[in-house]
From TrEMBL:
<keyword id="KW-0456">Lyase</keyword>
<dbReference type="InterPro" id="IPR001882">
    <property type="entry name" value="Biotin_BS"/>
</dbReference>
<protein>
    <submittedName>
        <fullName>Oxaloacetate decarboxylase</fullName>
        <ecNumber>4.1.1.3</ecNumber>
    </submittedName>
</protein>
<keyword id="KW-0092">Biotin</keyword>
<dbReference type="InterPro" id="IPR050709">
    <property type="entry name" value="Biotin_Carboxyl_Carrier/Decarb"/>
</dbReference>
<dbReference type="InterPro" id="IPR011053">
    <property type="entry name" value="Single_hybrid_motif"/>
</dbReference>
<dbReference type="InterPro" id="IPR000089">
    <property type="entry name" value="Biotin_lipoyl"/>
</dbReference>
<feature type="domain" description="Lipoyl-binding">
    <location>
        <begin position="84"/>
        <end position="161"/>
    </location>
</feature>
<dbReference type="GO" id="GO:0016829">
    <property type="term" value="F:lyase activity"/>
</dbReference>
<dbReference type="Pfam" id="PF00364">
    <property type="entry name" value="Biotin_lipoyl"/>
</dbReference>
């Protein structure tokens, strides 16, 4: 099964793009944050104006027109499907790995106060770096993993007080 990503452009248009769609792009980096792309015989000049890795939010310019793009990865879609992105998530006292992966970075400490959507850790899964964010305001009670550790699906990652 091929991974697909949902891109939301300017908060009005959603479209899905697969890994094969991405790999078939004829794209060349021309400078830092600038690219030249050919698609269907049409030339596009693309520039990344701003990027927020944790929220997967980007501002890009394509042939002079500016767009705000939010990317939903397969992991984001799975988290939403599991109910973490709903109002019911406020009562969650722990976070488990949504899929097998590798802990690349832990950006919180035990005892730390966190707000909803604060980044907690970076999980590499399916060749993508994914930020696991806090589903609610709270205090980190226990971190059950270490940086560089491989985790299995449903393995406990973090507990809240």
């Amino acid at each position: 099964m091929e991974n697909s990503y949902v891109l939301n452009v300017n908060e009005d248009f959603d479209f899905q793009i697969s890994e094969s769609d991405i790999s078939s792009l004829d794209i060349l980096k021309t400078d830092k944050g600038k690219f030249h792309m050919l698609k269907g015989g049409v030339s596009y000049h693309v520039q990344i104006l701003s990027a927020d890795f944790y929220s997967k939010s980007y501002t890009i310019k394509v042939n002079g027109d500016e767009y705000k793009v939010l990317i939903s990865t397969p992991l984001n879609q799975l988290i939403k499907k599991m109910g973490f992105a709903t109002n019911g998530s406020k009562n969650i006292d722990s976070i488990a790995a949504p899929m097998p992966g590798l802990i690349l970075d832990i950006v919180v400490e035990e005892g730390q106060d966190v707000k909803e959507d604060d980044p907690l850790l970076i999980l590499e899964a399916m060749k993508m770096e994914n930020s696991i964010t806090s589903p609610r305001d709270g205090i980190i009670k226990k971190i059950s993993v270490k940086q560089g550790e491989a985790v299995e699906k449903k393995q406990l990652l973090i507990e809240f007080e």
